Amino acid sequence: MATTDQAGVTTGTAVPGGAPAQGVFPPFDSTSFAPQLIWLALIFGALYLLMSRLALPRVEKILEVRRARIAGDLDEASAMQQKAQAASVAYDKTLTDAKGKAQTLAQQMRDQLAAESDTRRKSLEADLSSKLVAAEASIAQTKAQAMTHVGDIATQAAADIVRHITGKPVDEQAIARAMAATKTV
Fold first, then answer.
1. Pairwise CA distance, residues 160 & 158, whole Å
2. 3 near 10, Cβ under 8 Å?
3. What's the mean per-residue pLDDT of the chain?
């Protein structure tokens, strides 16, 4: 329908060229279904051939390469894990061996030190024992020597006591004879 405004311009919804306007959307126009279906089939077939011959093989190659890479990475990771486990077992064995050697060395050192200590102790005991025997002999000799002077000291002490009590001079020979007489009794 056409309308004219004040400037003389005609506006409206009419189709150019004077054809009357149709109210049907072209894809839904039932008169054009057959050509549309033919074009759909041709374009679908062309796209199918294009996809099946070019695009899908490339995608399949990419997926296969990725699968192979992932499988290789998993195999490599598995091999690395086995190596790590083997290294761990070897480390544990080495550590156990080292601990055993350390304990053996420590026991040997303890035994050696105990033997040296025992030898020193026995040497010191023998030295002390010989010094003790020498000291006892010296004491016995000093005691015997002192005992020989005990009689003289006792005689002198008895003479001094008698002199102090009586106030008179004493015959030391008489006191010595008296003491000798008491020894035999």
1. 5
2. yes
3. 86
Distance from the Cα of residue 171 to its chain's centroid: 97
In whole angstroms, give the CA distance from residue 103 to residue 112.
14
CB 32 within 8 A of CB 26: yes
**pTM, rounded to two decimals:** 0.39
Lookup: tokens for 154:
């006792």
Token couple for 70: 């992932």
Helices 56-166 + 172-183 axis angle, to 10: 120
Pairing of strands 2-4, 10-12: antiparallel
Distance (Å) of CA 134 to CA 42, 131, 137, 138: 133, 5, 5, 6
pLDDT mean over 143-171: 82
Position of tokens 């009419």? Answer: 14
Element (H or E) spanning 48, and its range? helix 33-50
Structure confidence at residue 116 (pLDDT): 92
Mean predicted confidence (pLDDT) in 69-73: 96
**Distance, CA of 132 to CA of 142 (rounded, Å):** 15
Cβ 3 vs Cβ 11: under 8 Å = yes
What is the end-to-end Cα distance of the chain in Å, rounded?
A: 181
Residue type, 78: S
| Chain centroid offset of residue 100 CA | 17
